[in-house]
Amino acid sequence: MAKRRKKSKAKGVAAAVVVLIAVIAGLFFGKDAIFGGITDNPSAPVSGGEVQFHFIDVGQGDAALIRTEKGDILIDAGTNSSEDQLKAYLDKLGVTELEYAIFTHPHEDHIGGADMILNTYTVKRVILPDKEHDSKTFERMMDAIEAEKCEVIMATPDKTFKVGELNCTILAPISTSYTELNNYSVVIRADYGETSVLFTGDAETHSEEEMLERYRFKGTLDCDILKAGHHGSDTSSSQAFLDAVTPVHAVISVGEGNTYDHPKQEILARYEAMKLEIHRTDKEGSIVFTTTGGEPTKK
Description:
Blueprint: H1 12-29, H2 31-35, E1 51-55, E2 64-68, E3 71-75, H3 83-93, E4 97-102, H4 108-111, H5 114-120, E5 122-128, H6 136-148, E6 151-154, E7 160-163, E8 166-172, E9 187-192, E10 195-199, H7 205-215, E11 225-227, H8 239-245, E12 249-252, H9 265-273, E13 277-280, H10 281-284, E14 287-291, E15 297-298
Parallel strand pairs: 3-4, 4-5, 5-6, 10-11, 11-12, 12-13
Antiparallel strand pairs: 1-2, 1-14, 2-3, 7-8, 8-9, 9-10, 14-15
Helix pairs in contact: 5-6
């Protein structure tokens, strides 16, 4: 794994229409929501052995996309109110189908756009925690899964799956009964060459402690990029967990001016003390890392 402490190293009318569309989209969603983190030619397929990790700006919610030459993986789908924003981002990238859609846990800010994803794109497999929820959002997601006849895989620890040369491992949830819904979050470790990324959903310290007990001495938690748990809340990112993960980059998916005061100053201070490179969707818009198997690079 690349665990070095890194240093940041068409014409005429058609063109006018493209500009007009971009301006209108910017008015509705904000410039960074549409263009933030996307390359100059986003519709081009991933090639040359490259893998892309997109942390998509969906406001106060989570959505991430892993792009490979052999297919795409979506992890969470933001809120109900951000589903048009999410769709615009995926469409601009030229996404038409997903090898896997992973909905980490049934909170609205993670599955709000799930029914849109299932109804709009070809989704081959869905990964879910074994936990139901009494909400209209959850009901719409399950109805869409049934209507689209998606293969459903229940998340169990140590289950692995691949898309091309990208290897993914489910690390959590480990228990089957939690008092806090966030702890049912599906935690995914994605490995490509020497690059490792840890997607933690909203997993809180209870789940982190279970992962530490199961994986601490196997080196399984050690990664280059950490998707910060629970939008940078102080319910997650315990010092013991961070000491095992030892990331270089921490990505916080969070909405500007959110009412939860995320990310918490205590957590930011903890990241800063570890000299992590902190990236926030409320400050930067969508965030993209690319790798060909070595050191990941932020676009």
